[in-house]
């Protein structure tokens, strides 16, 4: 039933992790045990090994697994049902690896939001992953002094939709620990996702344990961890990014740092809705005999940009290499060939994708101006920063940074140099989002709310040194230039 894994958001749990979670929830007085998304039954089998007298309940929406588990459990213990629409008793122990379907795939999410608000007095954000609904329901089905363990993606710790959940945790005082697996660890074979174990006790906890795990063998029976930080509930901010609580050193904000949004705004690039149709290279333009008016110069792939400074010469080189360097903008169509390409798009169904079906006309392109500085969306350890002097637009492969007011070129170059440095990137990475396989991501507002150095504080002498290094970036060793820039900028960020 491999096809059902994607349909139901199924990712099965490593046995070492499962053993840790089950051992944690089962105590001396545990009588009842629930797994709301039982799957292949790893939790329930381990629970039986610990205590055969437990009153077991297992649910799954996938009938295949319910039939499979009848070989291990009594038939009346297994329910082939949707957990979110099933009324249950309260339990002493709940363990779950819930489905990971994202909000776009939750067909009845508006109904769920209303039901949860009415039943549990919590209004979940519409962007919440399906696993969050499972978690909230389980915590409301936990007996007094009962224990609950969930393994879910930890992206909600740093997202806007996660604020409601974090506030719920703080108000309930049920959260005991968050065990975060390093995002370089691949715990699920078929998914690039972050993972954490959430441990709850239905009693008044005064502190939360924030635990980093970089090796799965750290999950032993002693519950002793190498990298553990403990905070009182009063120290936690539901509006803050909770990934920062796992760090040994948190960012110390001084008078020389300001929010990036005080200087300018990061905005996502142009979303076409169908890159295969809208992106063009010079050969395709020639073959289709499209007019110049419908061909909008554009950076379409991050991998195409290899130099730190992207100028018109770099753009011309991409054109000669027949890279996709143009967007089709049908609103400027003015000849038969342009209109034929629009008809081809409609005959192919390209006008009916999500984005195109919400645009009028469907073949129009977002009106976004070229950004002077480009920032990568995804990265590993280092944010890609490009100075764009080509006056060329960009797709969503980059975010664009736009200054709040018209700035002189030297100021733009100065700020660009700052963003290149390890000092700047270390501060920015406090606002990153982590994905599996060591992948990091920045949404526009993650960057807008990040701290940067107030460039106006740089002395004239240091400005001249930095701008000279900027000129050297094209012709000299870039790493040496950036290192020298970093030495200058770091003296300001470290000032009190």
Descriptive keywords:
496 residues; alpha/beta; Rossmann fold; 2 domains; disordered N terminus
Structure in words:
The chain is of the alpha/beta class and 496 residues long. It folds into two domains: 2-246, Rossmann fold (3-Layer(aba) Sandwich), CATH 3.40.50; 262-493, no CATH class. 31% of the residues lie in helices and 20% in strands. It contains 17 helices and 23 strands. The chain has helices at residues 2-8, 15-25, 42-50, 63-68, 109-120, 130-139, 162-172, 275-278, 282-288, 312-320, 336-347, 354-357, 409-420, 422-428, 444-448, 460-472, 478-493, and strands spanning 32-35, 55-60, 78-80, 91-96, 142-152, 175-181, 196-201, 207-213, 227-232, 257-259, 264-268, 279-280, 295-299, 309-310, 326-328, 373-376, 378-379, 385-388, 393-394, 398-403, 433-434, 440-441, 451-453. The strands form five sheets. The protein has a nine-stranded mixed beta sheet with strand order 3-2-1-4-5-7-6-8-9, sandwiched between helices. The chain has a five-stranded mixed beta sheet with strand order 11-20-16-18-14. A four-stranded mixed beta sheet has the order 12-15-13-19. Helix 16 packs antiparallel against helix 17.
């Amino acid at each position: 039933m491999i096809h059902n894994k994607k349909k139901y958001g199924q990712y099965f749990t490593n046995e070492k992790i499962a053993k840790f979670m089950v051992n944690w929830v089962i105590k001396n007085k545990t009588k009842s045990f629930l797994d709301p998304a039982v799957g292949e039954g790893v939790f329930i089998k381990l629970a039986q090994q610990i205590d055969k007298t437990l009153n077991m309940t297992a649910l799954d929406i996938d009938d295949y697994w319910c039939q499979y588990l009848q070989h291990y459990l009594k038939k009346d213990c297994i329910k082939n049902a949707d957990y979110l629409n099933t009324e249950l008793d309260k339990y002493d122990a709940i363990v779950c690896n819930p489905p990971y379907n994202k909000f776009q795939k939750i067909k009845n999410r508006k109904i769920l939001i209303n039901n949860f608000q009415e039943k549990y007095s919590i209004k979940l954000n519409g962007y919440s992953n399906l696993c969050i609904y499972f978690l909230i329901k389980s915590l409301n089905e936990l007996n007094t002094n009962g224990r609950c363990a969930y393994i879910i993606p930890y992206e909600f710790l740093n997202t806007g939709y996660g604020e409601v959940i974090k506030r719920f945790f703080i108000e309930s005082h049920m959260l005991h620990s968050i065990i975060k697996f390093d995002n370089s660890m691949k715990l699920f074979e078929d998914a690039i996702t972050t993972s954490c174990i959430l441990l709850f006790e239905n009693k008044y906890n005064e502190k939360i344990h924030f635990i980093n795990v970089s090796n799965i063998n750290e999950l032993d029976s002693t519950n002793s961890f190498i990298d553990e930080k403990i905070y009182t509930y009063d120290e936690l901010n539901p509006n803050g990014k909770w990934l920062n609580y796992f760090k040994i050193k948190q960012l110390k904000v001084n008078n020389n740092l300001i929010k990036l949004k005080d200087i300018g705004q990061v905005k996502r690039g142009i979303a076409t809705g169908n890159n295969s149709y809208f992106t063009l290279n010079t050969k395709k333009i020639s073959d289709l005999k499209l007019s110049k008016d419908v061909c909008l110069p554009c950076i379409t792939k991050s991998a195409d940009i290899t130099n730190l400074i992207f100028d018109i010469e770099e753009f011309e080189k991409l054109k000669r290499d027949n890279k996709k360097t143009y967007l089709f903008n049908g609103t400027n169509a003015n000849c038969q060939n342009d209109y034929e390409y629009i008809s081809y798009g409609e005959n192919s169904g390209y006008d009916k994708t999500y984005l195109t079906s919400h645009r009028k006309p469907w073949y129009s392109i977002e009106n976004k101006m070229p950004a002077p500085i480009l920032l990568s969306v995804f990265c590993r350890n280092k944010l890609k920063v490009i100075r764009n002097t080509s006056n060329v637009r960009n797709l969503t492969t980059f975010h664009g940074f736009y200054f709040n007011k018209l700035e002189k070129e030297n100021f733009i170059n100065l700020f660009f140099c700052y963003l290149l440095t390890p000092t700047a990137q270390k501060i920015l990475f406090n606002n990153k989002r982590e994905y599996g396989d060591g992948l990091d991501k920045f949404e526009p507002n993650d960057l807008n709310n990040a701290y940067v150095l107030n460039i106006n504080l740089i002395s004239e002498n240091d400005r001249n040194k930095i701008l000279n290094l900027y000129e050297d970036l094209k012709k000299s060793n870039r790493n040496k230039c950036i290192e020298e820039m970093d030495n200058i900028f770091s003296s300001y960020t470290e000032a009190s």
